Amino acid sequence: MTKLLQTWRWYGPNDPVSLQDVKQAGATGIVTALHHIPHGEIWPIADIQERKAIIEAAGLTWEVVESVPVHEAIKTRRPGADKYLANYNVSLQNLAECGIRTVCYNFMPVLDWTRTQLDLEMSDGSKALYFNWTDLAVFDLYILEREGASADYQPAILAKAKSRFESMDKDALDELRINVLMGIPNEKEIELEALRASINEYKAIGFDGLRDNLTWFLNGIAETCTQNGIKMTIHPDDPPYPILGLPRIASNKDDLLYIKNSVDQAFNGFCYCTGSLGAGMDNQLVDIFEAVKERIYFLHLRNVTKDEEGNFYEADHLGGDVNMYEVMKAVTAENAKRQSPMPFRPDHGHQMLDDLNKVTNPGYSAIGRLRGLAELRGLEMGITGQ
Ligand code: DNO
Questions:
Q1: Is 273 a catalytic residue?
Q2: What digits encode the pLDDT tens for the residues 253-297?
Q3: pLDDT for position 191
Q4: What is the 3-state secondary structure (H, E, C) of 192-244?
Q5: Which ligand 1 atom is the nearest neighbour of the CA of 238?
Q6: Phi and psi angles of residue 242, each rounded to the nearest 5 degrees, phi first
Q7: Catalytic option among 241, 271, 317, 348
Q8: What is the C-alpha separation between 279 and 305, in angstroms, rounded?
Q9: Which of 50, 40, 46, 42 is nearest to 32 (CA)?
Q10: What does the pLDDT look like over 128-167, one tens digit per residue?
Q11: Of all atoms in ligand 1, which is nearest to the CA of residue 275?
């Protein structure tokens, strides 16, 4: 039986976690992206080769691209989108030419993953990423001042948001703003004004319109992917709910099935992220895996603990609400049927031990992920005996 492929997200030469650290953690595959290339521009072969050479010189392999970002023009299908679609095709072709054929992307409007706090202290002193609806409402109502925002929250949350806002000073409000707008390390933070404009643009597009735009995008890359053996993996929405009035279309089993059926070809696959999907109150993780498993080409394994309001913090990989044992059983059974092993990475980790004294990328410090990877590979071995 083949083992899962152990990978690690590396942000490139500026990542405070080195490739040697990755080797010591025991991963063999690298997940990375060319973060220096602005969204929408072509990834030149020379840049891809250069990054690949750095990874290989360290004795590792570049297994997955996370992500080739989908430009907002494509997500909104505004005039000019065709050019970005053409560029995307060239980037994919260039990657395939360099032998890299698994690509992660998301179709979340404007913001990628969203948290309201990046350093929630756990009882053991480590720090975790946190999402809290009251804080999001404070951001939405009092910082972004989005029109009609109050209609999107429960009365209890609105009341709490009002009193929390009144207790916050300028620094606390600044920190909340920065956290919500942060998205991906190394990439530019979006401005409030731009966010307001985007929210209006997406209001006109809506849920169905965004679905149509994804279908248009997938059809537009289908030929390139099929001819070059590229597997696309859409990352689920994180959190898996509409936020700030923006539509979300990859949040639950129905969404994933819709995406699969909309362009029912092998290239059109999923990144199964247990943390993102696990934050959904009604999401049954094993059930979702079973529903689309033939199309899952990449795994993000991490855990979350939710409360009754739907707030959640990122838990230890084997702790939290996601039953990682059941997930791993399903994953290893599927992996046993594969020609080539499924890549997984320990997604996010607590900032802990020595990393507490360092500047790290939120969620991507070394030691917390090393712990996660060790636990997950042990779990796999416990299940499969290998
Ligand atoms: C967060 C990540 C996401 C993911 C993108 C994929 O840690 O899981 O940023 O990389 O959504 O496009």
A1: yes
A2: 999 999 999 999 999 999 999 999 999 999 999 999 999 999 999
A3: 85
A4: HHHHHHHHHHHHHHHHHHHHHHHHHHHHHHHHHHHHHCCEEEEECCCCCCCEC
A5: 11
A6: -65, 135
A7: 348
A8: 8
A9: 50
A10: 999 999 999 999 999 999 999 999 999 999 999 999 999 9
A11: 8
CATH number of the CATH domain containing 210: 3.20.20.150
Is residue 150 situated within a structural domain?
no
Residue 184 lies in a domain: no
C-alpha 92/C-alpha 72 separation (Å) is 18
**98 in a structural domain:** yes
- Tokens for 383, please give them: 């299940």
52-81 average pLDDT score = 98
> Per the structure block, which two tokens stand in for 332?
């290893």
- What digits encode the pLDDT tens for the residues 214-231? 999 999 999 999 999 999
d(CA 241, CA 239): 6
C-alpha of residue 385 to centroid of ligand 1, in Å = 31
Catalytic pick among 104, 225, 255, 300: 300
In angstroms, what is the span from residue 163 Cα to ligand 1's centroid?
32
Taking the centre of ligand 1 as the mean of its atom positions, its distance from the CA of residue 226, in whole angstroms, is 24
End-to-end distance of the chain based on CA atoms, in angstroms? 8
Instruction: Kindly list the protein residues whose Cβ atom lies closer than 6 A to any atom of ligand 1.
Output: 66-67, 104-106, 112-113, 184, 235, 300, 363
- Shortest-distance Cα residue to atom 2 of ligand 1: 113
The reported pLDDT for the residue numbered 182 is 83
Distance between CA atoms of residues 9 and 49, nearest Å: 18
Catalytic residue among 88, 273, 350, 355: 273
Which residue is it, tokens 């909340």?
A: 176
The mean pLDDT value for 37-43 works out to 96
Among candidate residues 309, 319, 321, the one with its CA nearest the CA of residue 132: 309
Please check the confidence at residue 249 and state whether its pLDDT lies above 60: yes
Q: Is residue 93 assigned to a domain? A: yes
Range of the domain at 329: 5-113+191-384
Quick one: pLDDT at residue 306?
98
The residues, ordered by sequence, that sit 6+ positions from 151 with a Cβ below 8 Å of its Cβ are: none
- Work out the mean pLDDT of the chain and round it to a whole number: 96
Looking at the 3D structure of the chain, how many domains does it have? 1
In a mutational test of the pocket of ligand 1, which residue from 184, 243, 344 has the highest number of ligand atoms less than 8 Å from its CB?
184
